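Notes for week 9. Today we move from apo structures to complexes. The key idea is that a small molecule is not decoration. When we ask for a structure prediction with fe (ii) ion present, the ligand SMILES becomes part of the input, just like the chain. The input block below holds both the sequence and the ligand string. Read it once before you look at the output, and try to guess where the molecule might sit.
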Amino acid sequence: MGLQWSNDLSTGIIPIDDQHKEIIRRVNAFLAAMEAGKGKMKVVELMEFLSRYIVQHFHDEEFFMANERYDEFKAHKEQHMQFIKDFHAMEKEFETHGITTDLVIQTQQKVCDWLANHISKEDRKIVQFIKNNQ
Ligand SMILES: [Fe+2]
Ligand SMILES: [Fe+2]
């Protein structure tokens, strides 16, 4: 289920790693709730947490990437911006329709799966870049 933290996800920057750990912890807690049939009870908690936290995280990570002169900075930032856009659309849908099964499923696919994939693949590319350029 979800994504587990391991050292090969480490960026070497403690605040970024701590943010990733917290995101993974929250996402996994939601996925566990979903499996227990309590997705609807926990979906708002996750969305409220992320609406503040993810903006800060992306901001910090972008600062880090720019600082390291990461060659795929623009494309990476673009992915962050697309996520925020999709996330806002989901928040709007929640405001209009409340907590629905569709919202829970969208959260799993567009938020949880996306974040697991992004942290394990895209964010790791930053780490690889830095290692190769040391
Ligand atoms: Fe990240
Ligand atoms: Fe990222």
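The mean pLDDT is 95.
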